[in-house]
Fold this sequence. Notes:
This protein is 44% helix and 14% strand.
Amino acid sequence: xxKKIVAGNWKMNTTLxxxxxxxxxxxxxxxxxxxKCEVIICVPFTHLASVxxxxxxxxxxxxxxxxxxxxxxxxxxxxxxxxxxxxxxxxVILGHSxxxxxxGETSETLKxxxxxxFENNLTPIFCIGxxxxxxxxxTFFEVVKAQIADALFHLSAEDFGKIILAYxxxxxxxxGKTATDDQAEEMHAFIRGVIxxxxxxxxxxxxxxxxxxxxxxxxAAALFAKPDVDGGLIGGAALQAESFMGIVNAF
Length: 251
Ligand code: 13P
């Protein structure tokens, strides 16, 4: 059966020293704890190798927030999937709405990134989600379906089965406006249906679908209680060990 997961996305926050401190705090909080979900932190590239040194990989997974769409070569400033993997990281967030919106990521570039993540044994945490206008004009189901189909439906069932999905309605990210648990469940159940139509019920039932967007300790339990919400991808509330653990412990 699918895994329950709470993953932090630190985005462009914390200096290296602050990030090591935060990772240590989360690691410490997990010592002796028996969370009912897997716990992952996705941190800036500059922090990966150092954070890997201070966490217990059996208790806390480590991921990057992006990787390049090329293997290697003359791409100044880019970080390859192989480089990410060489730090000890096991996960990579791909297709976050901030990457799509501010850095022009398309399904075509994301296909390359997913392939390179797999080549380097990284598990993609693949983000999808509609913007406010699409929520309001009622196109949100088709938008999300297209994001999944265009970037992922060329994959074999085996490869698709390695992906973690994160539904993040863009209007709920960093706005304090959470999707209601019913809105989240409605979309998560829809996504699972889309996967079932393509790959069958077993693959769909085994795919973890996380919710992201203003998830915090006070609303996490209600979201996670929904049958198709398998955890969260957490931005702001992942920047303090106490609030992040409050969400982890909501399971
Ligand atoms: P917030 O939790 O800050 O809304 O961010 C969600 C997010 O984008 C996680 O990837």
